[in-house]
Amino acid sequence: MAVFTLNLFDISLASTDDPLGFDDNGGYQFDLGVDTLTIQAAASAQAVLVDDTGDATFDDDAGAAQTLAAATVINGTLYGAGTVIESEYELDVRDGGGQAYTLQFVSLSGNAFSIEAFVIQGVALPFGEALTIVGRHDNTQGVHSYLTSLAPICFAAPTRIATTRGLRPAEQLRRGEWLLTERGRSVRLEMMLRVSCQQVDGPTLPPVRVRSGALGAGLPLRALCLSAQHRVRLPLGDRGAGKGPLVPAKALIALRGVGWARELAGLDYVHLVTSRHEVLQAEGVGCESFWPGPQSMRALPPVLRAKVRAVMGAAPERAGRFLGAAKAQRVLARRGIHCQGRACKNAGQGPGVS
pLDDT means per 10 residues in the chain (354 residues)? Predict the structure, then answer.
């Protein structure tokens, strides 16, 4: 028995201008390049447990090899454990800027002509916007991993990113928006990715929580949750903007107000992909955009790895000097920040953020 988490949206959260709706066994009702679909602006997914004895991908026509692992309410109906669940068909859609996205449409109990839910695979698409249907696929197997199904945002207070339109929650950002770097330069958001905590940091490292004001000068503006490996500017306020090294968030664990968020071990992360590696502003703190390092790229399926390389190129440059966690903590200690267990003493006024 292999149980996977599939992030599922009720079909009632989507609409289409095709009069036949979504109910079909292959999506053949849609007029490609003409018909559109729209997902409600406030739509959210639920995590559904699927027992898949065949492989680690959510497939069409898997039959009894792909069933609900527990009783679950989907689109207002309770389905018992053991109910067959499958991706009946998938659609390719495009937004107004030409960005492509993929959705799987889900049937249950072997009823191929009754679509009850949908799954967004890989790249996050814009909600509340009409998306043009440009392709359809039936009988797809072995392609779409459970791990890449779009997960719900798990931040209790969504991380706000500085943009040319002000501070914006990460999950509301869309391809084509302009983000602000730590130096105030505007850069275009090219892609959004979501991956699980365990994909990024493995099973042993929970997220790091940086409480409001923990880095000095009132930063972060609100509590900030990051992957343990997500790099931030080392808080050395006298270096000037953009001058300190980039260090993994786990390097800051020794500081007062920074700790492991173990209760958020199932968190899914939002990665912001820009054409170059940048240092953005997340709740006022300098945090890196997506860096295509070996570990991050291994967490992505081949199709998304290819898209990242198309955006960033084969050999992107780092936005700054990388420093490992151990070396970063030694730097903090040399600058008068000493920690014993959870007690921290700072010889100065408290670290700032560069």
Answer: 83 95 94 95 80 88 87 94 95 87 94 94 80 94 79 51 92 88 95 63 67 89 86 69 81 87 66 94 94 78 85 94 86 62 36 28
CA distance 210 to 252: 8
What are the structural domain ranges in the chain? 3-148, 160-346
Q: Are 4 and 149 in contact (CB under 8 A)?
A: no
Could you tell me where the DSSP H helices lie in the chain? 197-201, 294-298, 302-312, 325-334
pTM above 0.70, yes or no: no
CB 302 within 8 A of CB 343: no
For residue 261, how many other CB atoms are within 10 A of its CB? 18
Q: Coil, strand, or helix at residue 160?
A: strand
- Look-up of token digits 């501070």: 167
Q: Within the chain, how many helices (H) and strands (E) appear?
A: 4, 25
